[in-house]
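Running co-folding for guanosine-5',3'-tetraphosphate.
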Amino acid sequence: MDKIEQEISRRRTFAIISHPDAGKTTLTEKFLLYGGAINLAGSVKGKATARHAVSDWMEIEKERGISVTSSVLQFEYDGYCINILDTPGHQDFSEDTYRTLMAADSAVMVIDGGKGVEAQTRKLFKVCVMRKIPIFTFINKMDRDANDTFDLLDEIEKELGIATCPVNWPIGSGKEFKGVYERATRTIHSFSDTEKGTKEGKDSVTSLDDEAAVMDQIGSDAYDKLQEEIELLDGASAEFDLAKIQAGELTPVFFGSALTNFGVEVFLQHFLKMTQTPLARISDQGSVDPATRDFSAFVFKIQANMNKAHRDRVAFMRICSGKYDASMEVRHVQGGKVMRLSQPQQIMADSRKILDEAYAGDIIGVFDPGIFSIGDTLCMPKEEFRYAGIPTFAPEHFARVRQMDTMKRKQFVKGITQIAQEGAIQIFKELDTGLEEIIVGVVGVLQFDVLKYRLENEYNVDIKLEPLPYEHIRWIENENPDLGRLVGTSDMKKVTDLKERPLLLFVNPWSVQMVLDRNEGLVLSEFGRS
Ligand code: G4P
């Protein structure tokens, strides 16, 4: 293996998804601690300030306690080079999560054992299943009272339509949490939260066959219950099958407590063994092998004003093949230009490190003077291929944007266009009315708040949003459609999107079919392709 292949083979790139408050940040921090990347011991319990400094950067996130944007962290553990992609924890930002998942090879799903699959995040998890990427489940907060374990697994299977395979099994929960039983090795890892001053449980391992020792550790009631559950479990649960896990059809489930550090390292070790090296990606010229092909990457996220001091715009790209070094020239396929990437960086939340080199599986952030779009491909100058685009989600809520101070028109247009280019919202212009008004469309209503907040804070522009009744959107796929002759319905509005493509908004779902019936040859699509 040459150096490049070696570097690529030790990389693991995954996204971490969860409902807000399930423990995503705490778990990520513990991973980083094991990797020695940061020294947060002490500050983890020291609450919000320390935590937010690691992975959140927007004020609104702090205020609401949700993560709106996603960040990237890299650390080393046991010879592996690990890239964690953080995702917004709220379903209103599931489009962002979807894009981030496009850049990951697997996902870790964190669930609060006392809450199970929460209604608010169903959509978020479904997005994961839709992408068919391997999902690893960590059921957290076992040191608090948790739901019945079989019910938790049932819920995941029902809600997400994916089979589960517990790798370990909790022995009690809350005050009665004794540890976990590891199925493959038939051992008990017991939990004790008695270490004064550290808050971190100690992990000791006993074979299940050593009945006396087990009884001694967990007590006879817990022992009997465990025996019963193991029997049930062995009869009922899906067999461990690595091929199915890697195909995204089966999720291995782990139990633990991120806060007290119980089960985190075991999870990390199993996870790293089960996940794959950076996967091949599909382009319009077939599959691109990460290790044997030269550098290529695609843009999955654009973020402006991440740091007020910088006031810049960064395009995040996932390197899909080969090695990148800062001195080389690359082709930006969609822009039709050969160029040097400007200030390639590894972005670690607030801090940035200028990169000299990076490999397939890594994420780099590049200063973007406004040339990149989500889904764009970069490759070597001698090549020209495109990775499959990232579809935009159909917005489900629309509002007309009223700008309060007409003197600031330029600022307003700049701000709203930039935020739309990032994919944080979608904007549309009305056809036929001659009005310069902008309609904004979002997947989740919290995106409206983010828009308003960002326009005020980053562009100094006040707006008012007037809700519109449209809920259904269709792009017109016909080439050069004659919109003047289109026979519509009374609840329909004709608009164009950021790329000047024509589309229709409807209040009622049945109007879509009526318009299709009235206009022969009209082709409508639910997705706007990037
Ligand atoms: P998120 O990123 O998924 O939103 O969750 P985060 O890690 O911020 O955790 C949310 C809250 O849950 C935090 O409490 C955190 O300490 C707590 N937590 C995380 N993992 C565990 C666990 O395994 N057991 C228990 N009991 N709690 C856990 P907080 O009250 O918001 O902050 P703090 O005062 O505890 O720092």
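Result summary
The first helix runs from residue 3 to 9.
Residues 111 and 139 are 5 Å apart (CA to CA).
Job closed.
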